[in-house]
Amino acid sequence: MRLFLAGFVSLCLVSPAEAGTLVVQPVAVPEWKAVYGRVEARDSLAARARVGGTLVSLDVSEGDPVKAGQRIAVVRDDKIDFQISALDAQLKALGAQLQNAEAELARGQTLVDKGVSTSQRLDQLRTQVEVFRGQIAAAEAQRQVVVQQGAEGDVLAPADGKVLTVPVTRGSVVMAGETVVTLGGGGFFLRLSIPERHAALLEQGASLAVEATGGTLEGRLAKLYPQIEGGRVTADVEVPNLPTDFVDARLLVRVPVGTRQAISVPADAITSRSGIDTLRVVSDSGEADRTVVLGERHDGQVEILSGLAAGDTVVLP
C-alpha cells in the first residue's frame, strides 16, 4: 500500500560507482505530523414524531442499521380513536337521514306525477337529498384526515444509516416535531483539526496514512475548510473501509506538513550484530563497517538517520 507518497519509494538517489556499490544522495521527502482524526457521519439526521402522543413502540437502539422509510417507532394519540368513533356515529346518522330524504323524494315525485303536489315541493326534497349527501362526503373526508393523523404516528427513518442516539424511551410523551432517533447517514469520514501554522502546507487530494485496528489504511484529504477556529484548520479525510463500529472514535492520522532531506539504502545492505546496525562503506583506505541509525522502512528501502553522508559509497551484498 502506498502510504508515504511516491517520494519515500525513491527516498534517495543512487548512482552506481562500481559493480556491487552505490553512491547515495539525499532527496526531499514528505514531513509527517501525527494528529488524531474523529470518525463522523457525513449527515446527521433526526427522525421526528409527526404527531404528539405516547411512544408505544421503539423498534431500534443505538448502533442498529436502518433503511430509508423503515418504521422505527410508533406514537399513539388515544384521542384519534375517539374522533374516529364520533365520525363513524355521525356518518351513520347522516346515512339514515339520507335514506329518509330519498324516500321523501320518491313519494314527492309520485305525487307530482299524479298532480297532487307541486314542483316547488319536489325541488325542496331534491335539495334536502343533496345536502345530506354533501354532509356525508364532508364527514368521510374528515374521517380520512383523522385516520391519516393516526397513520402518521409511525416514525420513519429519513435515510439509510446507523442509529446514533435514542433520547427517548418507550412510554414517553412526545410532542409533534420532537426528535425520537438521531441517525448517521451518507457514509462516514475522518475529521481532523490541524494547527493553523501547517495550513499553507496542506494540499487537497494528498494521501494520508491512517492507523486503524488491524493495520494501516490509506486515506485522501478530501476537503479543507477555510474557516479557522481556535487556531486550528478543519479537514475531512476519506478512507476506504473505514472502521465505523464507533462513531466519534479517534484514529491516528499522519498528515504531510512539509518536506525534508533524507538518505536511504537497500534494506539488504544493512547488517545487524548484537543490536548494532552497520553498513559496508568504501573509503580511500578501503572497505570498512560503519555504524548507522535506522529510520523508517518502506518497499525494501531503509532511511539512514545518522552514520551516512551524501556522496558515501555503500557496498551492496
Automatic annotation (TrEMBL):
Keywords: Coiled coil, Signal, Transport. The keyword Signal applies. The keyword Transport applies. Residues 84-142 form a coiled coil. One of its GO terms (cellular component) is efflux pump complex. It comes from the Bacteria. InterPro entries: MdtA-like_BSH, MdtA-like_C, RND_pump_MFP. It is found in: Cell envelope. SUPFAM superfamilies: HlyD-like secretion proteins. Pfam families: BSH_RND, RND-MFP_C. GO terms for molecular function: efflux transmembrane transporter activity. Residues 48-179 form the Multidrug resistance protein MdtA-like barrel-sandwich hybrid domain. Its main location: other. Residues 261-315 form the Multidrug resistance protein MdtA-like C-terminal permuted SH3 domain. Belongs to the membrane fusion protein (MFP) (TC 8.A.1) family. This is Efflux transporter periplasmic adaptor subunit.
